[in-house]
Amino acid sequence: MSSTEAIVLAKLPRSRRRHPVAVWLSLALLGLVAFLVLFGNLIAPDATAQSILDSLLPPGSPGHLLGTDELGRDVLDLTIAGAASALVGPVCVALGSMLLGILLGTVAGYLRGPIDFIIGRWTDLLFSLPLLLAAIVVAGVFGAGYWMTVLLLILLFSPSDIRIVRAGVMEQAARPFVEAAQMLSLSKARIMFTQVLPNVWSLVITNSMLNVAFALVAFSSLSFLGVGVAPGTADWGRQLTDGRAIMIDNPAAVLVPALLIIGVASAANLVGDWLGQNLTRTGRS
Amino acid sequence: MTETRMTNVPASGAGLGSGSSIGSGTGPGIDSTAQVAVTGLTIDGPAGVVVAPFDFSIAPGETLALIGESGSGKTLSAKAIAGLLPAGFSARGSIALSSATIELPSTDAVWRATRGRRISLLLQDPFTSLSPVHRCGTQIGMTIDAASATRLSREERTARITQSLAEVNLPAEVARAYPHELSGGMRQRVAIAAALATDPELLIADEPTTALDASNQGEILDLLRGLQEKRGMAALLISHDLGMVRGRAEHVLVMRHGEIVERGVTSSVLNAPSHPYTRALIEADPSLTDRSAGVVRTASGVGVTPAAANADSATGDLVVATDITKSFGDKTVLHGVSVTVGRGETVGIVGESGSGKTTIARCIAGLEHETSGVIEFDGVALATGRASRTPKQMQIVFQDPYSSLNPMISVGRSLKLALRVAGRPASDLNGLLQLVELPTDFASKRPAELSGGQRQRVAIARALAVQPQLLICDESVSALDVSVQKQILDLLSKLRVELGLSILFISHDLAVVRQLADRVYVLRHGEVVESGPCHDVLNAPTHPYTQALVAASIHEAPTH
Amino acid sequence: MTITPIARASQARSLGRMLVVRVLGTIGILLVLSIIVFSMLHLAPGDIVKNLLGNRASSPEAIAAIRAQYNLDQPLYMQYLIWLGNALTGDFGQSIRLQDSVSNVIGSRLGITAALSGLAFLLALVVAVPLGVQSAVRSGSWIDRFATGFGIVGLSAPTFAVGLLLLYVFAFYVPIFPVYGAGDGGLDTLWHLVLPAITLALGLGAIILKLTRTAMLRELETDYVTFGRARGLPDRQVHLIALRNAAIPIVTGASLVLTFLVGGTVLAETTFALPGLGTLLQGSVLFKDIAVVQALTLLVAVTIAIIALLADLAYIFLDPRIRAKESAQ
User: Which candidate, A135, A238, B39, C6, has a CA 20 to 30 Å from the CA of A117?
Assistant: First the structure.
């Protein structure tokens, strides 16, 4: 297809474009949850306070909109306060993994050779074990706490970032504009980080958004299995484990955090996809 | 308003020689003997009319060529007639075939009955138009099955496939091959066999040879011509190359910006173009013009261009590459190639794809590490790789204008970076843009906002920003439209005189090299088969391969 | 001509060589993993002998017995070699939690997990591939919107959350499926596995759907699809050509599906209290029953390596260009 025709086509409203309404809703939900993460402890300071008198109230009870669990903890307060534990970890995982991915992926993809080989085998090794299994085994056997779990997940998430950055860098590095920079005798580090990396950003950002969603799922799965988050902590995954037994008496104790996890992960996924479509369209000439 | 303007076109066509089956003032349905008559074909895009209404008809066994540069609307016209317009585009008008008439826009059901059986479309790139995971025979067989009313037996289908392959001069065992096992020319033959297996009334061939090597192009076009005559099939040949249609199409339409600007019998359009745009196209086509330039040279008896004179006065050689060998794994692409570039001289390296011409240039530039051999620059031997070279020694202008500029960085920033490397002030930016004949406000633009030719000018400016002694042009104009190609070649000729540049010019296109080079090397399978002054080598080639190359390029534009 | 019988023969030979390289690479990775898995015993917090004793009394005799049983007085590399040798013959030692040999423990629970994963995989495949193809072919239609929405939620919803929601709905509102345990074997067990399998299939299906849709969309834009339509091939045939080409990226994504399946099985079994390998792993991890954890980890690694190898082979089988490229090297 000729260039002008291609440009005309590029301006077409893409039929595959996600409905902006869903994107706006997702952003709104993410905004609300971000607010809870930042101020949840101020809104619900007594979330983990137990009360034998108030144990196992159904939703709609006076003073307890969503009822209480068997320890008498208010489900709404728990949910509000649990946002921080459920989300801070995943966001840190996505950021840490992005950083590792950029560093190792760029170096491997641009320099190639032995460094690439070593990094490649390292990612192969990490990829050969299912992420959740590795996390359960390592965090469980070693009794890792919250932040150790974050570090572990960064390590386990990084191969996908490394591979994506590496593939993007390799694709860009073969392009003539990179060779033109070599013809100007610019240093390798300068070419990597000023010429090549800017063209890979859109991939990185998109993948990090998707990583937030998957890290949220992984984190809550771990705490559901009793790994990573200490018992008694306000955390959505933890709420599901604890609430399973009292599902008949107070379904809200399970349904609310479960729907929140699904909703927030879906929203992050949707925004990630949307970013991917829009950023890559402007990033490519 | 476009409507009124366009109805004038057939009238102007009426002035052309009698027997013309297109144009004529008699309105639609023009020629009762026509196989195909298209009337009022109009294409609407998302932002309004993209192709203004036009008519044409094609007699059985005849070819109509639709000529235009990229973006002219010629490919959209082809797709409209095949009912394959991309989403967002729609067509109006009618297509009268001898067996049916289709009113546009039409339904999927009508197109299903039409495509293949009545109209078939051959695409440009044989490397992508066949499914890579299906055997060639299977792909031809699918067309045969689609067209036949009854279910064919295995033997019958095999026989029909063999017959289809024989028609395009391919042996029967090609049926068992996958496309990647075949050369480009062979793949395009398979595609032709697949497209014609249903015996359509009209074949639309969209740039069928553009992706092929020069030596294959003529063969494919002649094959198409032969098949068409044998079957009495009408053909619509879409091309950007006016030179190609000589002797291969009865009539020609020239399209520009979605409008037909000229139409008529091929020879009269080529010999006496009436529209200024057609004249510009003919002048810009090196294969059409250089023929006359060659005549002038022989007539005057002096085969010396100004630059060649320039080279004579220069002292010593700038680049001496001796006995360069380069292997990738166990595949050797250069077998002891020696190339010399004198000061102020323009040296051409000619060869088909895979000849190693780009590799030798990249070795000289230090982007590739030669396996053995010596490269001297200014009398000093250079170690392999970029580390031993400085930006001021040499710069490259690459082939693909769409990837040779960093899409995330503005033109101005790219150029300033190059200026800074050379220790020149950023204020030289405007002068640099003027040097390559670009307006100074281009500095703030992103590459995506520029056309191919403009990008290539920026790439040249970036190369010249460091004031290199040698400029390497690696197929620098081959991705551009003919008229733009001409402008860039003119710019390069001007710059080498103004700046006293030495140029190493790599190309597969003899006509382009002929325009610029003082001396030429002909490369084949990693060896120099012939070298010498450009004029001697290209006008009186001694090596059979060079002779074949030259013959192929003349074949494209046969003399009368 | 490039297609001589000789070329074919040498192609087959180098294909064999390439296979050997892949197999050796896989064995290499498994060896490295086995070292990591082995060292888990020594790296786990706490005293190694106490960990191995579990709840048993730590009399000097018991300690001596443990030291002898695990060869703790041998040099580390000998311990590893003995452990690896035993593991290769299926001897992973004793489970301190269940007081039985690890191979017995695993053997008795393998059936449930295999049935659950198989059922879920089948369910996901049967629904997701046709849905993915249709959603790509009718891009923008309601079916595409539904598929896209399903894909996003399926990818985002943790298996246990979906499981709990299903459990709630089916336990209290539509009590047609049993919600806990594995039943009494045979058809009853299959009946018990329906809900867990649907739970697991949702995530699996979302991955397969996304892979299929993306690959199909890309293939439908290629020249050979346009050329197929241009020469009058019926839509069905054109879609089949596209799907045949799309099969390559879809199979390549198999590792993604597998990774999900392993984690998902643990969560689904835990949610529905199924006595399979997943719950065994969870229980063993929390109890620090290291011998079982080691055996399960190795088992999963080997299974994944074998399936990845098969996917690689399928990839070569599906793409004639790879065959040519591999043999050219």
Answer: A135
Two tokens, residue C243: 């799907």
DSSP character at residue B449: G
For B116, other C-beta atoms within 10 Å of its C-beta total 29
CB C152 within 8 A of CB A269: yes
Query: Using the beta-carbon criterion (under 8 Å), do B134 and C237 form an inter-chain contact?
Result: no
User: How many angstroms separate the CA of residue C221 from the nearest CA in chain B?
Assistant: 10
Task: Look up the ipTM and state it.
Answer: 0.82
Which residues of chain A neighbour C301 with C-beta distances below 8 Å?
Answer: 128-129
As beta bridge partners, residue B263 has B253
> How many Å apart are CA C105 and CA C98, to the nearest integer?
8
Q: Which of A13, A176, A183 sits opposite B391 (nearest CB)?
A: A183
**Residue B47: burial class (beta carbons within 10 Å; 0-12, 13-18, 19+):** exposed
Q: How far apart are CA B548 and CA B538, in angstroms?
A: 11
Mutate to test the interface with A, among C138, C143, C162, C164 (most CBs of A within 10 A): C164
CA distance to partner chain C, nearest, from residue B147 (Å): 7
C152, C169, C270, C307: best to mutate for the A interface, most A CBs within 10 A: C152
d(CA B417, CA A184): 9
Closest approach of chain B CAs to the CA of A285, in angstroms? 5
How does pLDDT run across B503-552, given as a tens digit for each residue? 999 998 888 888 889 999 999 999 999 999 988 888 888 998 888 888 76
User: Coil, strand or helix: which one is B41?
Assistant: strand
- Residue where the block lists tokens 């329906």: C194
Which chains border C (3 or more CB–CB pairs < 8 Å)?
A: A, B
Torsion angle of alpha carbons B430, B433, B438, B439, nearest 10°? -10
What burial letters (b/e) apply to B389-407, b meaning 16+ CB within 10 Å? bebebbbbbbbbbbbbbbb
Rounded CA separation B539/B522 (Å): 13
The reply to whether residue B146 touches residue C237, judged by beta carbons under 8 angstroms, is yes
Measured distance CA(C328)–CA(C18) in Å, rounded: 11
Pairing label, strands B234-239, B63-67: parallel
pLDDT digits (tens, 9 = 90+) for B107-166: 888 888 888 888 999 988 888 899 989 999 999 999 988 888 788 889 999 999 999 999
Does B398 contact A180 at a Cβ distance shorter than 8 Å?
yes
DSSP A61: B
Q: B171: which 2 tokens?
A: 């042996």
At residue C264, does pLDDT exceed 50? yes
Give pLDDT, residue C25: 85
Task: Assess contact for A17 and A50: CB atoms under 8 A.
Answer: no
Joined tokens for residue C42: 């020594």
Give the mean pLDDT of C46-71. Answer: 79
